[in-house]
Design brief:
This protein is α+β, with helices and mostly antiparallel strands and about 325 residues long. Among the domains are: about 20-85, no CATH class; about 165-320, 60s Ribosomal Protein L30, Chain: A. The protein contains six helices and seven strands. The chain has helices at about 10-15, 20-40, 45-55, 105-180, 225-240, 265-280; strands at about 95, 95-100, 195-200, 200-210, 245-250, 290-295, 315-320. A five-stranded mixed sheet has the order 3-4-7-5-6. A two-stranded antiparallel sheet has the order 1-2. It is rod-shaped and about 190 Å long. About 20% of the residues are buried.
Length: about 325
């Protein structure tokens, strides 16, 4: 007896469970999709760039993207460059020179030759441009220095020209004073008692005593008649000039014979004051008077003869417009 056994139910059970696997795959895929959507929504732009750089970092050893590297670091094991999303085109330049990564083999050198060539060219262009800028800056500085030197030279020349013109004016004034005194018959014999000389500070005019021909009465501050006439001739010329003036009085070394409470200091100061008053009366603006001083016998005209009559004098200094810089003892010394 032949018994035929059929197990149709087993095959139906096997085919009936296949859908579960497909469903599980679908659910897993949906979960991954929603998880991805949640991550995109919950992360910042910087975090998303980090994710992108992790899955596609810059790899200097090959042309294709690689998944190796540190999480969110965007760096490979053999690269020290920045993230792909953050690297500028010239990231290979450091301090104006191209960074030269270490090569592991000749094959790697061949692979990077085309990549290094543009960077080398860019580096050379950068260095050339910097050199040109430096050269232009140097040229500009030299031009500025030359212009400054020219301005200083022109200024110095102008100052020298003005000083020379002022000197010429003072020399003309001195000649006018000499002519005015020499052409007056009453004063011609006093011409030798009038000393005019050029000093660094300007024109110095000195009226000195002579033996038996004083211009100041003995022991008196006011000039005598002859001295007053001589001073007025000088004042008439000085009044025409715009220069400032200084006035000083001087005596010899003979002790003052007047009252006991007076000395050569008092006498020289009084004579300087009397000279100032006469100049102002003759037309010299008082604002031009810069100083009035008595020197006593501290600045002798004839140092080897302290008692000489020429040491008794009054001095008028017509000052150069530039001032009295560097004046040292202009009233002393011989004529």
């Amino acid at each position: 007896m032949i018994v035929i056994r059929r197990e149709e139910a087993g095959e139906e059970g096997h085919h009936g469970g296949a859908w579960k696997i497909a469903y599980a795959d679908f659910v897993t895929a949906m979960m991954a999709f929603f998880l991805l959507m949640w991550l995109i929504n919950a992360t910042t732009d910087a975090q998303r760039r980090g994710l992108a750089d992790y899955f596609a970092p810059t790899n200097i050893l090959g042309r294709a993207a690689s998944g190796s590297g540190e999480p969110f670091g965007g760096r490979t094991m053999n690269s020290s460059r920045n993230l792909a999303g953050e690297s500028p085109p010239s990231s290979g330049l450091q301090n104006g020179l191209a960074a030269a990564p270490q090569r592991s083999s000749e094959k790697d050198d061949d692979l990077d030759t085309e990549e290094a060539a543009p960077r080398t060219t860019a580096t050379l262009r950068y260095l050339v441009s910097q050199a040109q800028l430096a050269g232009q800056s140097s040229v500009d500085q030299q031009a500025a220095a030359a212009m400054a030197g020219q301005r200083q030279s022109a200024s110095a020349e102008d100052a020298a020209a003005r000083a020379q013109a002022a000197r010429t004016t003072l020399m003309q004034a001195a000649e006018e004073i000499r002519s005015s005194v020499g052409n007056d018959p009453q004063l011609a014999d006093l011409a030798r008692q009038l000393i005019l000389d050029q000093v660094p500070e300007g024109l110095r005019i000195q009226i000195v005593d002579a033996e038996r021909q004083p211009v100041f009465a003995a022991g008196q501050a006011a000039p005598n008649g002859r001295g007053r006439a001589l001073l007025m001739r000088v004042a008439n010329v000085v009044a025409k000039l715009p220069n400032a003036v200084e006035i000083s009085g001087h005596t010899d070394s003979t002790p003052f014979r007047g009252a006991t409470d007076r000395s050569n200091w008092d006498l020289s100061s009084d004579r300087a004051g009397a000279t100032r008053r006469l100049l102002v009366e003759s037309g010299v603006n008082e604002d031009r008077v810069r100083g009035v001083a008595g020197r006593a016998d501290r600045e002798l005209l004839v140092p080897e003869r302290p008692a000489d009559a020429a040491n008794r004098r009054t001095s008028i200094l017509v000052i150069m417009p530039e001032g009295r810089a560097g004046r040292t003892g202009a009233e002393g010394g011989s004529p």
